[in-house]
Structure formats: C-alpha cells, structure tokens
Design a protein that fits this description.
Four copies of one chain form a homotetramer. With 134 residues, the first copy, chain A, is an alpha+beta fold. Chain A is 43% helix and 18% strand. Chain A is built from four helices and four strands. In chain A, strands 2-1-4-3 form a four-stranded antiparallel sheet.
Amino acid sequence: MSISSKSAERAIDAARQTSVRIGVPMNIAILDGSGHLKAFLRMDGAMLGSVDIALKKAKTAFLLGMNTEAVFEFCKPGAPAFGLEHTNGGLVVFAGGIPLKADTGETIGAVGVSGGTVSEDFGVAQAAAAALTN
Amino acid sequence: MSISSKSAERAIDAARQTSVRIGVPMNIAILDGSGHLKAFLRMDGAMLGSVDIALKKAKTAFLLGMNTEAVFEFCKPGAPAFGLEHTNGGLVVFAGGIPLKADTGETIGAVGVSGGTVSEDFGVAQAAAAALTN
Amino acid sequence: MSISSKSAERAIDAARQTSVRIGVPMNIAILDGSGHLKAFLRMDGAMLGSVDIALKKAKTAFLLGMNTEAVFEFCKPGAPAFGLEHTNGGLVVFAGGIPLKADTGETIGAVGVSGGTVSEDFGVAQAAAAALTN
Amino acid sequence: MSISSKSAERAIDAARQTSVRIGVPMNIAILDGSGHLKAFLRMDGAMLGSVDIALKKAKTAFLLGMNTEAVFEFCKPGAPAFGLEHTNGGLVVFAGGIPLKADTGETIGAVGVSGGTVSEDFGVAQAAAAALTN
C-alpha cells in the first residue's frame, strides 16, 4: 500500500491552502511507502534552505515512524540517544514531519514541511497529512 | 527571473499528459532560477531508480546550460573532457534534461525527466519545457 | 506487501545450499518492499569486497525493477544511457541481482548475491528468489 | 580469528529470542574480525531508521574496541573529544553496540542492535554477544 500521485497532489494542495491562509510560503514534500519522493512543491518565496529541511523531515518521519518533534525527545540535550540526528544521512528533529500510517500501523508514506516557524510548519504538515488519510 | 510554482505545475501537467499518451510513467523534476528543486512528481508505477536520475538530469542541464545529451559530446569515449560526468556530485549525460533560458540567454530553470527510454524521456522533457517557455 | 523475516531467512538458506553445492561461498542480501536491508549473510570465506557488491546488486534490482544484467543493456559501451551505473549512489550492472515482484508487477523486494563468477552469482540469486516467490 | 557464519546466526537467534520476549522488534547486525558485515536481520516491524543505527553501533564498537555507550564518555558535552562521533563516517555513541574480544584482548567482531529504547537495545546486544563468546 502506498500513496498515489493523485493523493500526493491533493495533499500538496491542502498544504498550500493552509500556507496561503497563514501567509507563509512553504516547501512541501510527500514520500510514498518505499520512502522515496512522490511529490514536492516549493511555493513562491519559500526559503531555499528549507528544500533540504522539508525532504529530511519527511525522511525522518518515515524512517522512525513518528512525528519529527517526537524524535527530539530521544536526542535532546541530556536524553539518552546523543547524536541520533546524525544517523541515516542526517535527520531533522523539530516539528513539520509526520508519518502516514495504515490501519495496521504500517508506515505508508510521510509528509515534510518547512518554511515558517516550527508551529507553522507543523500546522501545514497536519493539513497535508489529513488530506492523505481522509 | 525564475519559475513560479504555477508554471512549474503547468509544466508537470504537460509532462504527465505526454507520459500518459505514450503509456510510460515518469519522474518529472523542475528546478528554478537558483537551481533548487521547485516541483517534482513521480507518476504511479514510475521506476524508483529514476527519481535520482530525473533530479540529476535537471541539475546537469541547469549547471551546464545545455541539454543533457549535449553534455555527452564532451565526455563520451575519445572526447576531451574525460570524467566530466563525475563532477558536481554526479551528472547525467543522456537525454531527458533541458535548461530553460530567458531571451537574454540566462538559464532560469531546468527540467529533468526519467522513467522510459532515452527518447521517451526526451519527448516528455520537451513537453514540460514547452509549457514553461510558452 | 513486503518480505517477512521468515521468508528472508528461507531465501538465505536456499542461496546457501546452492552455494555449498557449487562450492563457492557467497554474500547474500535480501531487501524488503521499502528497499531497505531485511537480511544478510556472508558465508565463511566469501570475499570481503563482495559485501558491497551484493548490497548494490540488490539495490539496483529493487530501484530499476529488473535483473541487474538487464540494466547493463542500457549503459554498456555504445548504449544510450552512458553512466547510468553512477546514479543512485552507484549501481551494479552485472548478474546476481533479481527483483521480487507481486502478481501486480509491483516490486516487493530484491535479492543480491556476490562472491563467485557472474553466472555462479546468478544461479545462487535465482535460488534465493525462487524461495521467496514460491 | 573471526566470527563464523554459524556463530553469527546463533547470535542473531539469541538476539531475536530476547527481542521477542520483551516485545520489541529489533535490527541486529554482526561484524566479523575485519569489521565487515557478517550477518544482519531486521525483524518484522522493526524501525527502518534503525538499520543504519544498528550497523553504525556495530562499527563504532568494532573500531573503538569498546561498548558504544563508553564512547559517549569521550565526546559528551564537556568531555575532551568534542565531535568524535562525526569521525569514521559517523559513529553512534549510545548503548547497543558491543565489541567481541578474544582472550588476547584483540577485537574479533562486534554486535549492533537498534529498535527499542537504549536499555532494550543494550539487553538484546548483550544476548547476541553472549551467544558469540560462550
């Protein structure tokens, strides 16, 4: 089971609408069930440095099967998994990455959003994820 | 001057229509005037290994300002620029990457397509490029 | 749909039995439906340099959805996709990598074997693939 | 002196049994006396992001000849070897990697386990190491 290109584009549209509403242009990445890039959009004016961040947020959420900000709890200062963020070619451990799961719990894709504050990124990622799971 | 997200999506749509018409699902990458990823789509059933190839074709066309198959002339067996394809983190020197140029000759973006034969990739990349320059 | 660890180990056992029968110790890699490593075995005496080759054969077969020796046809001297083998972090384009496909045609894993001659590797990879698809 | 494939598989079985008992699917990597991969298993449901972590834990334990959590003491905040974890292509410095040593003190292999909490990983790695040294 995976994300179709139709679903991926619907998710990008949902993310874009939320981005426009809050007035923050975003980079939006959608991965499929193999963890490979399915669709991507950089809205006009979105930060160039956020291309890599959006892609890595999606990768992080996919590989670890949890929201990116939840990964932070394992590797934040004083937490046991020191340096976890340097594995897998570089993970991003702040909000904006959300895994997509089947009813079985299996990860079938992921969303990564970057361009605004951490809470703005998270809100836009939620909009994309909702469009994919509804 | 650069590629707007609206234009990038129009280019992806044009590429997709050509892909559907020839019956070959493609990976389609659009770079903007800074050479960064603007939009991407992997059509359902497109080869996973072509994600990297589409991205590198677009990068090659952008960085060298010419079609990817034209770059081959410089590094093919017997040509002077031996190993050129190993620079810049890896170039792809067969057809499917096309730079987008302003009237001034300045490169303002690039298209990269991969998923079929070299000539199929080229035809789909041309459709995307035409949608961006018309 | 993907490869279970039970299936992966059955495939490794089948590959090992063939290797023992022909007297050539092998490296055997099994990828699952996400293209990630599921199981691996280096038989005693198998070449160290073949660890990387077995892993890359499996990756190549997974990403391109075809036997590794079939990929060679696209990038061999004089063929159109010059340098294809340098994409995706390095592909291996001689026999020994076989994709595993569902009835739908979807790639659900891959096998990579290295340690002997190309035809020995191919025979052992076939044994592993047969154990996974039967 | 090195780890035979028979020993490596016995170690993986021991690790698996412990993993099943605690209900946490794990990635288990065994390196031999040259530091190359000897055997690997990703149990069903084990995190994909832990493939890389298990491999790097084993590498870290092998290269430094000590448990991964002991390496942390050298590079933790305030300790002298700042950035040690970024050498050797990336080390992992939390528990789950254990070197295997001959009576002479020579490192003859290593175990790396990842998939659960740091203490769960450590317990499973100990089970694998015990199976290899007994």
